[in-house]
Amino acid sequence: MSWLNQIRSVTAVGLSSVPARLGTSMVIVVGLAAVVAVLVSALALAQGFRDAARKTGSASRAIVLNGDTEGAGALTRENVLTLLNAPGIRKAAGGEPVASADALTFIGLRNSITGLNAYVAVRGVGPQAPALRPEMKLVEGRMFAPGAREVVVGRAVQHRLGGLAPGATVPMQNGDWTVTGVFESGGDAHESELMTDAAMLLDATRRNVFASLTVALEGEGALERFRSAAQSDPTLTVKVWREDEYFELASRNVSSLLTAVAWGIGGLMAFGAVFAALNTMYTAVGVRAGEIATLRAMGFGAGPVVASVIIEAVLLALTGALIGALIAWALLDGSRVSAMSGISSSQLTFGLHVGPALLATGIACGIGIAVVGGALAAVKAARIPVAEAFRMA
Amino acid sequence: MKMFRLAWAGLWAKPVRTTLTLVSLIVGFLLFGLLQGLHTAFALATSRTQADRLLISPRFESPLPQSYLGQIQQVPGVKEVTWTGFLPAFYQDARKGFVVISTDPVSFIQVRNEYVVKPAQLQALLATRTGMLVLESFAQELGWKIGDKVPLGSLVPRADGAPWTFDVVGFVTNPSNPGSVPFALANYDYVNESRTNLKDRVTRFVVRVDDPRRSLETAEAIDELFASSEAPSRTQAENEYAQSDMATIGDVQRLTAAITAAVLFATLFMTVNVIRQAARERTPQFGMLKTLGFSDRKVLALVVGEALLLCLLGALIGLAITTVTFPLVASYLPNLSGYLGTPRLSGRVLLLGVVTAIALTAVSAALPAWKAMRLNIVDALRMRA
User: Which of B212, B220, B273 lies closest to A24 in CB terms?
Assistant: First the structure.
């Protein structure tokens, strides 16, 4: 009989007895389901965060800061005018530079879904903002009118807090402002913010400095020209970043923390699960000692016996991993969560997507655990001395 | 003791299985300890930060009347309220100003619990109408001692034209912020009676709320009370940043709870199976023991004892590893340790771990132990060893 046929028969015999030892077999299924569910969920969280942060910036824009973060920024009007005269900035049809000096504040809102507090960033933007950030699209209502006490709300904030439809009001520092519309910008960090006119926001917060300046770059080499002009100006102490690099960097701490936590917890659980799987397969081999001895006596080789034990472990693990992945997918896919972002020190709300790559990672981990656990037990199975096994049985 | 040795021997009848189970249990309890440790550390940090304090100030120009107190106390979510009237003052040198905070000293110290006053000195302030408690470092700077009667200058004159005079009855310290701006505490009634501005009014109320995560709701409820009065209020969290941190921590706590549940469920499932199987395999042994005169209850105790040994051993080793590794793990959470101080492993977590191990034993040993107790000797011995 060929090897492959042997493996098939031995495995079939083994699997046929699984229902008889359902309890111990289920230990692998349940254990793996837990490991994979946790691992896939945690990785989905880390990945969703990273994607949202990365998407926020564009390589065709530069951001100018004079503090460690936007929240700590304090660019004066003079600073802004100086910067707008620097080379490398794309000009609109009318000749004005495509740029926006942003003001930033935080307001307290009530989450109408949970009833808890939520603090949200409000970004004041300049008149060129639509040309600067074409990814921002109004999906409901109308844009805020410059000079009016009006804001538009990011889709992610609206999802997170509920309410905030056009017509609602938000409590600003100088009274209630009206929500006029809802915008989307491709699921990036700005969708977690409210947006209004920079001049109105500075007036409301009684400040006269901007948090940051974002400019559109002309093209090839523009970043270097703009950066060297801005950073060598003696009246300025600023840092110029390519926008996407800035947002990636700003979120890196949180992003790597989430990834480390995901693998840390997932890894520990997987370690525990290896032992549980090993235990189950040891028991299975013990129970089947007589049956294995019979097969060996009939002329089946040690190899097929080893393979059959591993295959059984993998099949059980696969069932568990699939259940776990399904749980993670059902619970999280398409949902939105928020986390401390490191970007403008507000919460970043982002969508979770439990995609094929994540599911594959989870299932691969499950198979890995089963192979390790199964292999050690399989060696025991292969070593069962035939005569002794018969005596035992 | 004999029972213990019997249980111990039973536990190691299948050394491989016991070892493997033990390792899984250790990992399970290590995860439990780490996750619950973080969970508890966050909860403790929440109560320690001052995110639960609200300041009620005038919305517009008109200062709030002290008579709002009763209404504020009735608002759901309000735990304690105090009120303060600021009297700008100076001693001899008008350039070195400080604030005399006229207040209700007892509620003030409750709400502003970062300040420390000796109980006897607080009593002295209550007993002395013109008394004053001075920030200790400031009193040292000025050379004030208990018993001094100090005349103060102020931009707010007294109704009778006389200088503001206070008796130093004690000191206040702020251990968490030694560099605090200079101030003194005085009785509201005394200052209020004599002042010419802000009479029966307060500079602000300070509220402590039950649940910082719902403080916005409380703040709204307070402002609603006075919205249409002549002196509307504006209620704000004392530390808004700390509050948005709390919201994040809310998510962290849900997450740790969910993962802990998954870990415990998998651990429980495994333990149930191992114990059940071990008991089934040893059925003939139980029959033997009964033949030798062991009572049914003793057999039950043996099964439970064995399970308990296994679970406790796993829990204790796992929790011991947690104790060692927790500071290392905690130091990897830069964001959280920055705001809240590095989380420390609470003794409660270890206790909870042991309780969980006992619960695990109870659930997994109940059925096998019951079966072993009811076992009929003949049936038991008929089973092949």
Answer: B273
